[in-house]
Design a protein that fits this description.
This protein is an alpha+beta fold. It has one domain: Glutaredoxin, CATH 3.40.30.10. The longest helix is centred in the first third of the chain and has 12 residues. The chain is globular, with a radius of gyration of 15 Å. The protein starts with a strand and ends in a 6-residue tail after the last helix.
């Protein structure tokens, strides 16, 4: 049985492009979820937030974060962070790799190799 892999991000993000190149170079099939244009519903973000702390998903280094009003950036909790990420998908740290019960935020060739080539999900 093949493992379904979703790579979520934004097409012009350098980290996303690096992850795509790595997946393709290693002949790993994936589905790309564009956070700006594809149907991105609350339950997908909610599913990620069940596995990964919202503080990991929220990108406070982004231009979008810096452009928010101070009132939006203060006194954050999980619900407010989720609302902000739904309204501004570029606040989500990218890429997000989803497979089985694993959500990996950010790209690291070493971590992808561990998960996809050497890890328990690799059947070879």
């Amino acid at each position: 049985m093949a493992i379904s892999i979703i790579l979520a991000g934004i097409k012009n993000c350098d980290g996303v492009r690096s992850a795509q190149r790595w997946l393709e170079a290693n002949s790993i099939d994936y589905v790309f979820l564009d956070l700006r244009s594809d149907l991105f519903v609350r339950h997908i973000l909610g599913k990620w937030m069940e596995k990964v702390d919202w503080t990991t998903l929220l990108n406070k280094r982004s231009a979008t974060w810096r452009g928010l009003d101070d009132k939006d950036r203060t006194d954050l909790d999980e619900a407010r962070a989720m609302t902000l990420m739904m309204k501004h998908p570029t606040l989500i740290k990218r890429p997000v790799l989803e497979m089985e019960n694993i959500i990996e935020v950010g790209f690291s060739a070493e971590r992808y190799a561990e998960l996809l080539l050497k890890g328990p999900l690799n059947k070879s």
